[in-house]
Amino acid sequence: MQVTVKTFAHLRDRLGFAESAAEVPEDACVLDVWQSITDGSEMPRSVLAAVNLDYAAADTRVHDGDEVAFFPPVTGG
Amino acid sequence: MSVELRTGVFEPWRELADAPDGGLGAGAYGATCAFVGTMRDFNEGDAVSRMVLEHYPGMTERQLEAIVEEERAAHGLLAARVIHRVGPIEPGEPIVLVAVWAAHRREAFAGGRAIMEALKSRAPFWKHEQTSAGGRWVEHNTKG
């Protein structure tokens, strides 16, 4: 199945893309999506994730067509 | 309850002067508390000439709305208003307005503070600042 991956701020600079499509297995979770875009690397503690605009943990299951985002700690306000 | 993102300069005190009752009507509330965050021209010991506020369209609004609703319920707020800048911003310009209306000062102070702290830790915004040494991402918030 396919998910849309978005990245933000310095994580986008580091990964080299703002938006991309990722092919992952049917039972994939957020961590699997991270590994599919980083050649299998560990997901650093400082990386935050969201699925369909809500914060999500590394073990959150994803589904076909989901939007999965990765970004660094937020610094607004 | 209202949440807005603005791409241009806004005047928080004018916004409040134009709607001082938060839409509640005279007599419906007894306390109003407002916080304005303004861009500094320094950060972590360096002069900052300019900044860009990146956000995650869709998620930022959704998180801000969730924060306002949670703190409204937790503190018994009667109304709340949040305005936050996105895009390029210059020193001296307002970044954020959080205004709340409640029956009494305790709820107003506590609820306004809670919205601001939740925004700092949960709302997806990222600051990229320009210093004499070049551009850099702000990596963590200053202590409140």
Task: Give a nutshell description of this structure.
The complex is a heterodimer of chains A (77) and B (144). Chain A is an alpha+beta fold and 77 residues long.
Question: How many β-strands of chain A, per DSSP?
Answer: 5
Main β-sheet, spatial strand arrangement of chain A: 2-1-5-3-4
Shape of chain A: globular
Record field, number of beta strands of chain B: 9
Structural class of chain A: alpha+beta
Helix share, percent of chain A: 10-25%
N-to-C series of helices and strands of chain B = EHEEEHEEEHEE
Number of domains of chain B: 1
Could you spell the SSE succession of chain A in H and E letters? Answer: EHEHEEE
Number of helices of chain B: 3
% residues in beta strands of chain B: 35-45%
Radius of gyration of chain A: 11 Å
Question: What ranges of chain A have pLDDT less than 50 throughout 5 or more consecutive residues?
Answer: none
CATH class categorisation of chain B: Alpha Beta
Gap from first CA to last CA of chain B: 24 Å
Number of domains of chain A: 1
Oligomer: heterodimer
- How confident is the prediction overall: mean pLDDT of chain A? 97
N- to C-terminal distance of chain A: 37 Å
